[in-house]
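Please produce the structure of this protein holding magnesium ion.
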Amino acid sequence: MKTHTARSRFSAILSLAALALCTTHAKAAEDMSKPVITTEIRKGEDGKDVLYMFIDGVKVHETDVTKQPLPPVVTPGDSLGFTTPPSDAIVLFDGSEESFKANWTDSQGNPSQWKIVDGALESVKKAGYIQTRRNFGSVQLHVEWAAPAKVSGDGQGRGNSGVFLMNQYEVQVLDSYENQTYADGQAGALYGRSKPLVNACRKPGEWQSYDIIFHRPVFDEKGKLIRRATFTVFHNGVLIQDHVVLSGGTGWMGPHAASEYKAHPDKLPIALQDHGNPVRFRNIWVRELKDKPL
Ligand code: MG
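Below is the modeled complex.
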């Protein structure tokens, strides 16, 4: 009888453990299956196949605002976010030529043609992206930027740049002040994946800030994605991405599709985009973050 009771207890503990494991797996499975992403191929005007991707039923880069409403406009206060780097920050650009050269290269690892203007780093057309010499995984990143004061172009062609975590996950930089484009491509969007909660853009030429909390995706030893990246972003001190689980990559895969996750190292450079517009950057600093255990 005693043995029987002990056995019952043991099997009850086993059942509980199994249930806990199932719940954990179910949770993990649930996280990985949302949002629901579907794809289809449609014929373009030229008769060629075009990939269309839908995230929870909404087309990537949807321009119809009845299907993908634009984020409400919010006038930010006078905040430039977490302006002053704390003592454990790695300063990536302090306004000087020296800090630019010491911390940044072009995408091939060579000196970049971007220029310093009035203590700010300015994107130079056709000079390509710049990237940090050092590699980073999960980080807290502060960066200030300004779209050109002289307005030129519209939509995606006006003040376009980008802050790329791990050289690939883009927080869009765009002059979104009274400049309409698809919501998932405006300032503060995780490009093609998540529109900002609100549009907190300042006027062209005015300094703005992003404070980004990024946790890297995790891949297993076979390259299978086991945890997706997350983003929390403040624009001029206003929360615009609220612990968003990034559903996939942010790379351009045609007019209505974004890239998928693809296995990569745990640390990679932070990059800034040359999209042909002279966008300026200043006061860039970063703190490395630890990842939570799996
Ligand atoms: Mg961009």
